[in-house]
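COMPLEX REQUEST
Ligand: inosinic acid
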Amino acid sequence: MTCSVLVGGAWGDEGKGKCITYLCDNDKPNIIARAGVGPNAGHSVEFNGEKYGLRLVPSGFMHTDAKLLIGAGVLVDTDVFFNELDYLGKYKLKGRTHVDYRCSILTEDHKKRDKGSEHLFKKIGSTGSGCGPANSDRVLRTAKMAKDIPELEDYVSDVALETNEAIDNGEDVFIEGSQGFALSLYYGTYPYVTSKDTTASTFAADVGVGPTKVDEVINVFKAYITRVGEGPFATEISQEEAEKLDIEEYGTVTGRRRRVGLFDMDLAKESCMINGATQIALTCVDRLYPNCAKTQDYSDLSADTKSFISDIETATGVPVTIISTGPDLKDTIDLRSELL
Ligand code: GTP
Ligand code: IMP
Ligand code: MG
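STATUS: Structure written out below.
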């Protein structure tokens, strides 16, 4: 039995979607539970030549034997939820996808307040998805809950109970976080952050799992860093430099051009410490070291890449167990068996 929590190591978009897809396809957990803020997230999932963008439903949806759960801490936008159920229709989500009855509901009014706010939308550079105002209504105790919404009647359950029963029965549970460490309301670059803590402890709490039940915390980093929205970014490089390195990027949810920077060892250390990381997944290694594209064997990585990986392990004290060398699930080096 293993209960794992996957987290983003920096400002989101670390390639969590690819890692979750790989891990769920490989390990086939019984429960895949979505934690994190809400539909401000955008996870990209690519397999068998198909590409999906997800904001709410767990990214492990393609593992059709798993229950897909959304924890009580996650904000639910019913439009996004039902659109994703339709969009992913062939994966038979109905009957195995449940929202905790305690989830707060994100409304049109929250989206209007987010997009209309000089402070949130303009100064902070929010995604405009309504998450900040919805979380503030939850704190003010005026937000509606999933159990009060008739259209969700067939989809609500006690996610915390289901997840804890699964753990007690020796089943595997995979908790997928969203956003990233540096966007945490407590530990990130406040005020240029999201509306909630985004570290492993909060992700476990989002789903209703206590800290003593968590076995592994997988911290996902990209080989370089990107950030959307405003705020400090110590290792940022210019757009021209990013283009030269061929690492420019655009957002999944907002289409905004992402700011780009080099890997930040100090951030990685702090992120591993506060998340209590037990493993690191390193993505987009091929984009920084094109000679590693699609490599599936550690011994075939270039000396430069190996030394970069070993520097990360030395600085953080955490082993790099997953190395992603391309968007496809096959483009993955999995070193987890070496930990045993
Ligand atoms: P999260 O927000 O962390 O879930 O990241 P994401 O999945 O949203 O990342 P993003 O939207 O930035 O998309 C990343 C893109 O890169 C997707 O098209 C992925 O399929 C792809 N990708 C993921 N890992 C790798 C990798 O190791 N190499 C390359 N070349 N592409 C990757
Ligand atoms: P909000 O969460 O929409 O309020 O946005 C606050 C900040 O967090 C902005 O800088 C957003 O760009 C950033 N943000 C929120 N969610 C994500 C995400 O999933 N990936 C990357 N940035 C995000
Ligand atoms: Mg993303």
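REMARKS: The chain has one domain: 3-339. Residues 8, 12-18, 42-44, 46, 249, 252, 283-284, 286-287, 324-327 surround guanosine-5'-triphosphate (ligand 1) (CB under 6 Å).
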